[in-house]
Each structure stands twice: as C-alpha cells, then as structure tokens.
Predict the structure.
Amino acid sequence: MVGIVIVSHSERLAESVVDLTKMMADGANIAAAGGLEDGTFGTSYERIKAAVDAVYSEDGVIVLMDMGSAVMTTEMVLEEYDDSRIRMVDAPLVESAVVASVSAMCGSDLETILEEIEEAKGEPKF
C-alpha cells in the first residue's frame, strides 16, 4: 500500500489530518511529521525522515506539506533517498490527504493516486 506522510509546522495539525483521514480510510499507511521535538512550531528533519521510513514500501510514499520550511525541510530529507517512489505533492493538505488515503486503501498505485490528487485540486468547495 502507498504510504502517506503529513508534514506540518504544527504537531497537532499533522496529527489531526491523520486522524481525519483514518475516519474515512482506517488502516491507511499514514504518518504525521509535525512540529519540533520540544513541541513548538517548526519542521523537523528527524520527524520527517522517521515518518517516511515508517510508511515506506515498494508501492511508494506521498508526502504532503503545509507550507514554507515544511517544503524545504522535506526536500532536504528526500535528498537522502535515491528513490523515485517517494514523491512530494504540491496540493491542498487536508483534501489531498483524504483523497490519497482512501485511494491507497482501495489498492491504487502511486501514479493513480497522484492523478487523483491532481484532479481534486480543481474541485470547488461550494
């Protein structure tokens, strides 16, 4: 199953996104990487790497980030891996997490999930 990592400056936000996705896709291979080790706001190289390692499989990993240094820190982490199956995705955090989790639970492959996230980016909220 494709793994999913939620990177946020806020530990609570990342964990809440994971909790929300599990309401619709319980059993999804998803991990939160939010905040710094001392509980303050920020992005942690170590937390992102640990989350990627926790959900990694041959099926691939999708990493969703909130903004700014979350993107930069994720880029630094992914430089360690020589693996095209680990993908950062520029998309709305919550909506994409739900789409990716449900699709992964249905057995979709990495490329299909990426296409579904891309399609969801254009969906209006009302």
Summary: The CA atoms of residues 62 and 87 lie 5 Å apart. The radius of gyration is 13 Å. The first helix runs from residue 11 to 24. The chain has five helices and four strands.
